[in-house]
Sequence to fold (333 residues):
Amino acid sequence: MSQNHRPTIHEVAKVAGVSISSVSRALNGNTSNTEMVERVNDAVRQVGYVPSVVAQSLKTRHTGQIAFAMEDIGNAAYLAMVREIQPTLRDVGYRLLLHSTGADVEDELGVLDSLSQNYVDGLVLCPLRVTERHVAALRDTPVPVVVIGLLPDDVPVDNVRADSRVGAGMAVEHLYEAGARRIGFIDGPVDTVPGHARYEGYRRGLDACGLPFDEELVEFADFQFEGGRHGARSLLARTDVDAILGANDLIAVGALHVLRELGRSVPDDVRVIGMDDTTVAATGFPPMSSVSLGSADRGRIAAQLLLRRLDGDTSPPERVTVPPSLTIRESTL
Fold:
C-alpha cells in the first residue's frame, strides 16, 4: 500500500463486516449496539483510519478548537496568556489556535466574521482598539467569545480587564517615592485602549504626588522595543528626566538600551520602570521594575469563562477586573 494512501471509511466497513452507515453511527456515538461499536473500533485501529475533522465538525457543529487572536504573539504578555489558556483548554480536550492581528482593526473584524464558518467553537479576542464595528460584531457572534481588554458594559460577551490606570499611577508613585521628580512617560498609541488608560494613569499619578503635568515629558510611539528606543531618543533630546515609565516592558527595555548608549546609568542617573512584568523585565540589565497587569491570570480567567459558555451557561456576561501589582527590581532602587 502506498505511503500516501489515506485509509477510508469504506475499508473500515469492509474489515468490520458492517455497512458504511453503521460505521458512521458507531464513530459518531449514534448507536447503542456495543458489539458493533467494538468491531468498528477494532477495524479503525487495524486499517489506521483517521476520521476527517472537517467532516465531523460539519455534522456535529463541534470542532474541538478554540482561537486566540492577539496583537503580537512575540509579546511576552500574550505568551503569558497562552501559557494559561492552552493547558486550561487542553485539559478538557480543546486545541488552541493562535492568530496575530498586528492590532489591525480589519483583521480583527475578519476574525469575528469568520466565526460563522464553523472552524472554531469559541474565540478569545484581545483587541487594542474597540470600534463601533467591533461592538456590532460582538453583539451577534455564532460562537462564544471572551474579550481580554476594556469593553463597553452593554456589550453582551464576557470580558476580562486589567486596571492599567491604577497600574500606571502605581508606577509614578513608586518613582516619586524613590526620589524622581521629572518622570518621563513613553506611551503606545493613545487611541488604543491600553494607551489611553495608561496615559490617564500617568497623569493621575502625577496629581497624586503633587507633580505638575508637562507635555514635554511625554512621548507616543508603539508598544514595541523599537518604539521605546525611538521614544527615548526623542524624549532625551529635548529635555532632562530622572525617571522613565514605559507603557509596557518592551518600550521600557528600548529606553534602557538608549540610556546605555548615551552613557546614562540606571538607576543612578535615570530610573526606569515598565508595565506587564514579563520575562523581558526580569531578565533585563539591570533587572527592571515593572507593574504586573496579571496577564497569566487574565488568560486563565478568559479560558474558564469561555469553557463555561461552551457548557451551555446562559447567565449574564461576566466583567472581571484583575488588579495590578508592583514588582521592584534594580532599575528603580
User: Anything to note?
Assistant: Residues 9-51 form one domain. The chain has three domains: 9-51, 65-162+295-324, 164-292. The longest strand covers residues 65-70. The CA atoms of residues 203 and 213 lie 7 Å apart.
